[in-house]
Design a protein that fits this description.
heterodimer, A: 345 residues, alpha/beta, 5-stranded mixed beta sheet, 25% strand, globular, B: 161 residues, mainly alpha, 6 helices, 0% strand
């Protein structure tokens, strides 16, 4: 919560993600982290007739029929989604009592999408925070900071790979300078959710169809390269009764393919481009740990799998690291930048 | 507002000040790079290639006698020194230059000028090393830089005053 008596500018880190939004801000001596699904649903108050807004998990659970994820592609694509995103973000900001007198750093994917960025500007303008300053930095850079030495990592050469829901991004940074940024929408967390849904249908011989939200939940709860265990679930049959089924392979097959595809893109597309443009940076960067960020990096053992397969593909030892919470890292890194910028103002 | 929210157009100087990192924001030459600079980099490579084909590299030792002064040559020089410095630190880079002078890649004068340039660069944080830490690939890369620089120098000598 913001302290009304505190006259200092509040530094806030924001990651507005396609699946989840994360806010990081100080609360006294502690750092507060708010993490919620990037979705909202509206409903009419039965007593007053007024339109009410629900967001996050509550909206997804209570109004699955009308909940809207407005940043499906990573940025608001049109006016309607921009308006929804603005309502969502304003509600979130109000709920956490974040002050206007704040320095806000947004961690944003580096996809080429001018229209989306313009729409995001209107969301940010209406948010009611960031009177002191507003900045944005690449999500991969913000996410790499908590995994390394914090802000000191700005002075290093590093490669950061962001495993997002809607994009795979990779970029080298030389003393804070962005080199050879690469992004593809072809290898994504969302695609893995779709694949899990298909594989579940195959594994159950067509008896079970799950939606992508359920597939995402399976992935987040069960995918594990270290200690995977088959799990059971139950569906209600349309004609009554229920059907219990066990998932052996669907989840891990999909995430296993995902790791192969990530390694393929990084080793055969991004790194050759980097080597071509900045030979010495390429050479030096691979002596340093490659940082994985983003929600997919939360899967236990995934970073070690990427390390093993990337080392095999490149035929040299590569170290891969993640922050303690890769899904929060971008907002945490953004907040650390905001704190310093606020101090400098 | 547009510039503030485009994550490829952040101010590196401001970021480095926020991180309390001293020195030139873009490494050696103060060149800011984002997506469009990849193209710029390719242009730079093309200029370097043209220079190389226009003038043969030195074929006798020392390979690099004069320090070339064109913009592309200076940038190449800083890239090389920055590489050595980041690989083995300030002392290691100086050791490497001495070694290259001993084996005839550099003239004593060229080595001295390179040391002056090295002193102008910011030593990277916590990077220590020595000549022994450079492997064959590193020396191959250094040789590539020496060859490029000697070609630039030869090209400059051939140009009319």
């Amino acid at each position: 919560m913001a302290d009304d008596e505190d006259a200092e500018t509040m530094p806030i880190g924001v990651k507005l993600g396609s699946t989840r939004t994360v806010l990081v801000y100080p609360d006294g001596d502690d750092i507060e982290v708010a993490r919620t699904l990037t979705c909202l649903a509206t409903y009419e108050d039965a007593l007053t007739g007024e339109e009410r807004v629900l967001y996050g998990q509550e909206a997804a659970e209570e109004y699955p029929d009308r909940v809207q994820f407005m940043l499906r592609s990573g940025l608001p694509e049109d006016d309607e989604n921009a308006a929804l995103a603005a309502t969502f973000f304003e509600t979130l900001v109000d709920e956490h009592d974040l002050p206007e007198d704040s320095a806000v750093v947004y961690a944003i994917p580096t996809i080429e999408n001018d229209a989306g960025l313009k729409n995001l500007e209107s969301v940010v303008e209406d948010s009611g925070i960031g009177d002191k300053l507003v900045r944005s930095y690449p999500e991969s850079l913000c996410g790499a900071l908590p995994a390394l030495d914090g802000l000191d990592a700005v002075d290093r050469i590093l490669v950061a790979v962001n495993l997002g829901s809607t994009n795979l991004e990779a970029c080298a940074y030389r003393r804070g300078e962005q080199l050879s940024p690469f992004a593809t929408g072809g290898v994504t967390g969302n695609e893995i959710d779709r694949r899990i849904a298909n594989y579940v249908e195959e594994e159950t011989q067509g008896r079970v169809n799950i939606d992508r939200t359920t597939a995402r939940e399976y992935k987040e709860e069960h995918a594990d390269f270290v200690d995977y265990e088959p799990f059971t679930d139950v569906i209600q049959q349309p004609g009554g009764g229920s059907h219990e089924y066990t998932i052996e392979d669907s989840v891990m097959d999909a995430v296993d393919e995902y790791v192969d595809e990530v390694v393929e893109e990084v080793a055969n597309t991004f790194l050759p481009e980097l080597a071509n443009d900045y030979m010495k940076v390429y050479q030096l960067a691979l002596d340093e740990p490659v940082v994985l960020t983003g929600g997919m990096a939360c899967i236990p053992g995934l970073a070690d799998e990427v390390e093993t397969r990337l080392s095999e593909t490149l035929q040299r030892e590569v170290t891969v690291v993640t922050a303690d919470r890769p899904d929060l890292a971008a907002a945490e890194g953004a907040q650390s930048i905001a704190a310093r910028l606020a101090d400098a103002e | 507002m547009a510039g503030r929210l485009n994550p490829t157009e952040y101010d590196i100087g401001e970021l480095r000040r926020a991180a309390d990192v001293s020195g030139d924001p873009a490494g050696s030459m103060g060149v800011r790079t984002h997506a469009r600079d990849v193209v710029r980099s390719k242009v730079y490579e093309a200029v370097a290639e043209r220079e190389l084909t226009a003038a043969p590299a030195a074929r006798s030792r020392p390979f690099l006698d004069d320090q070339p002064s064109s913009l592309v040559a200076v940038r190449t020089t800083y890239e090389w020194l920055d590489f050595l410095q980041r690989r083995v630190g300030d002392d290691g880079a100086r050791e490497a230059l001495s070694y290259y002078e001993r084996i005839g890649w550099l003239s004593p004068a060229a080595e001295e000028r390179l040391r002056d340039h090295l002193a102008a660069l910011n030593p990277p944080l916590s990077r220590e090393g020595s000549l022994a830490d450079l492997d064959a690939d590193d020396h191959r890369l250094s040789y590539d830089y020496v060859t490029k620089l000697s070609a630039f120098a030869a090209r400059e000598r051939e140009r009319p005053e």
